[in-house]
């Protein structure tokens, strides 16, 4: 029954619950008015295509511009210039046809003539459109960063040539390249960078405009989107459910829609039953376990080396190495994995924060021969002392070897601990994780029924490591209102025996009780 929460492709008015992109696209409208050539980058399924189509429709209903939305993803991965440019021209022609006479397209014969010189065919096609357009032309190339190799170099070079000559030869008033990456990340090889050494300069892509991105929904917009379902069906989202969706997603459009869709169309189909925060948490867990398409494609990026160089030290609370460049951060920000918040790089939202370590340790978790029931007390509580003893036994027998085989090898101990805990806690609780660059540690909070158990994880590097960790954990306990915490301390020095590494002792730190678990 229409409308519904959309989790696949651009939103369609009347078919999907949707919000006006106007607030999120206000800066893009300004760039168009300023005749800028720019990139609009944001992570997957953040509403880029929906917003771009909305803008084109708005511009074409006005009397200032004519506009085209051109999806060039059909040229994805094609490095050869001629077949890639043939796809681009076909997409341009289809876009013109969708304007229903507002713009006149070149004839098929004209297009074929242009394609005889594929290195200038896009340039010629756009000039021809501008000559025929009664108003300044705006062109939004969606999925532009799917072009690769020589085809990408040719495409960008043609746009630059038209931009430089547009004072004397008709060419679009404004051009936007829409994708997950900033324009300087379109070129990956040294050969490509040499061919388009002007990338990042003011021509054709203005430096300040190049940073244009798409903001997530704010709290009010999340609430307004959910309210559309209530208005349509009568099913309410309790205030704590709205807040939980906002918190877990931080306004990421796909995550908002996916959680809401999971709840109302699968988990709580009775429209007389109000949606609660508990329903939202269950929906979040389903998205993670089932690894829906968006999440799966995002996690595939974790295998990329420039992503690993940033995410791995994050998991450990360390700073990045000297081989990590600003462009690497820009790339991971563009993917939507990170955000800049309060002057720091952070994982974009709590769902991603949970997904990343669980995905990196998923195959190991499935191989851990442990049963949650072994660590449950007769009254249903979680037996942490027994759990930590079981962890130490596992770490000595299998865990340390598995950690060495992790793709994220330096973070291997942390990932193995999280895999072990996740295997157990899946039986009746959940784990909340806090990690980030320069934090110095990984903080875990096990939520089991009405219990909370705080754990800090740290690698022993020198004699001051334990003292620093105890101070950090005491602050964590104080902020959490807990009196007892656990410090898992990995000591990876080869000369130590297992008898020296494995211990449990209790100390006092900052007025709190801390049990140190040596590994």
Summarize this entry quickly:
The chain is of the alpha/beta class and 519 residues long.
Task: Chart the SSEs and their pairings.
Blueprint: H1 22-33, E1 37-41, H2 48-61, E2 66-71, H3 81-98, H4 108-115, H5 121-132, E3 137-142, H6 149-165, E4 174-179, H7 190-195, H8 219-233, H9 239-249, H10 253-267, H11 277-290, H12 293-300, H13 305-316, H14 326-335, E5 338-341, E6 344-347, H15 350-360, H16 362-365, H17 384-404, H18 412-425, E7 429-434, E8 442-448, E9 451-459, H19 465-480, E10 484-490, H20 498-501, E11 503-509, E12 512-518
Parallel strand pairs: 1-4, 2-3, 3-4, 9-10, 10-12
Antiparallel strand pairs: 5-6, 7-8, 8-9, 11-12
Helix pairs in contact: 3-6, 5-6, 8-9, 9-10, 9-11, 10-11, 17-18
Tell me what the structure shows.
The chain is an alpha/beta fold and 519 residues long. It folds into 3 domains: 190 residues, 3-Layer(aba) Sandwich (Rossmann fold); 72 residues, Helicase, Ruva Protein, domain 3; 157 residues, no CATH class. 47% of the residues lie in helices and 14% in strands. The protein contains 20 helices and 12 strands. The strands form 3 sheets. It has a 6-stranded mixed sheet. Strands 1-4-3-2 form a 4-stranded parallel sheet. Strands 5-6 form a two-stranded antiparallel sheet. It is elongated, with a radius of gyration of 27 Å. The model has no long low-confidence stretch (mean pLDDT 88).
Mean pLDDT: 88
Label the overall shape: elongated
Which structural category do the helix and sheet elements fall into?
alpha/beta
| CATH domain class of the largest domain | Alpha Beta
């Amino acid at each position: 029954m229409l409308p519904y929460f959309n989790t696949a492709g651009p939103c369609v008015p009347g078919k999907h619950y949707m919000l006006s992109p106007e607030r999120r696209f206000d800066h893009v409208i300004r760039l168009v008015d300023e005749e800028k050539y720019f990139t609009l980058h944001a992570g997957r399924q953040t509403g880029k295509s929906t917003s771009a189509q909305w803008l084109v429709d708005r511009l074409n209903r006005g009397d200032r511009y004519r506009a085209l939305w051109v999806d060039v993803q059909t040229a994805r991965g094609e490095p050869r210039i001629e077949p890639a440019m043939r796809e681009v021209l076909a997409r341009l022609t289809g876009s013109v046809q969708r304007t229903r006479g507002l713009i006149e397209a070149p004839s098929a014969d004209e297009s074929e003539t242009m394609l005889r010189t594929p290195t200038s065919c896009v340039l010629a096609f756009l000039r021809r459109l501008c000559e025929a357009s009664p108003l300044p032309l705006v062109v939004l190339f969606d999925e532009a960063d799917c072009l690769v190799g020589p085809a990408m170099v040719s495409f960008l070079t043609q746009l630059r040539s038209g931009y430089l000559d547009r004072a004397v030869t008709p060419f679009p008033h404004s051009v936007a390249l829409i994708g997950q990456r900033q324009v300087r990340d379109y070129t990956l090889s040294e050969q490509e960078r040499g061919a388009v050494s002007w990338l990042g300069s003011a021509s054709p892509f203005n430096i300040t405009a190049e940073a244009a991105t798409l903001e997530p929904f704010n709290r009010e917009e999340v609430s307004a989107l959910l309210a559309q379902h209530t208005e349509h069906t009568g099913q309410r989202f309790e205030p704590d459910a709205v807040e939980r969706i906002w918190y877990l997603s931080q306004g990421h459009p796909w995550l908002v829609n996916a959680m809401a869709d999971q709840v109302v169309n699968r988990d709580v189909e009775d429209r007389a039953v109000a949606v609660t925060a508990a329903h939202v948490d269950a929906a979040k867990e389903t998205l993670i376990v089932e690894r829906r398409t968006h999440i799966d494609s995002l996690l595939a990026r974790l295998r990329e080396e420039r992503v690993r160089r940033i995410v791995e030290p994050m998991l450990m609370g360390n700073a990045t190495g000297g081989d990590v460049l600003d462009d690497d951060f820009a790339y991971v920000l563009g993917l939507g994995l990170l955000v800049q918040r309060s002057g720091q790089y952070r994982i974009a939202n709590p769902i991603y924060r949970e997904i990343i370590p669980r995905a990196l340790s998923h195959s190991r978790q499935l191989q851990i021969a442990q049963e949650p029931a072994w660590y449950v007390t007769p009254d249903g509580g979680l037996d942490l002392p027994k759990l930590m003893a079981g962890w130490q036994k596992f770490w000595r027998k299998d865990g340390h070897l598995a950690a060495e085989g992790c793709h994220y090898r330096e973070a291997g101990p942390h990932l193995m601990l999280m895999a072990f805990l996740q295997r157990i806690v899946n039986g009746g609780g959940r784990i909340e994780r806090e990690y980030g660059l320069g934090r110095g540690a990984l903080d875990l909070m096990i939520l089991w029924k009405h219990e909370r158990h705080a754990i800090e994880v740290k690698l022993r590097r020198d004699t001051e490591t334990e003292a620093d960790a105890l101070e950090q954990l005491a602050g964590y306990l104080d902020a959490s209102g807990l009196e007892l915490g656990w410090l898992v301390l990995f000591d990876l020095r080869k000369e130590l025996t297992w008898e020296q590494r494995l211990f449990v002792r209790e100390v006092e730190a900052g007025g709190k009780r801390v049990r140190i678990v040596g590994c």
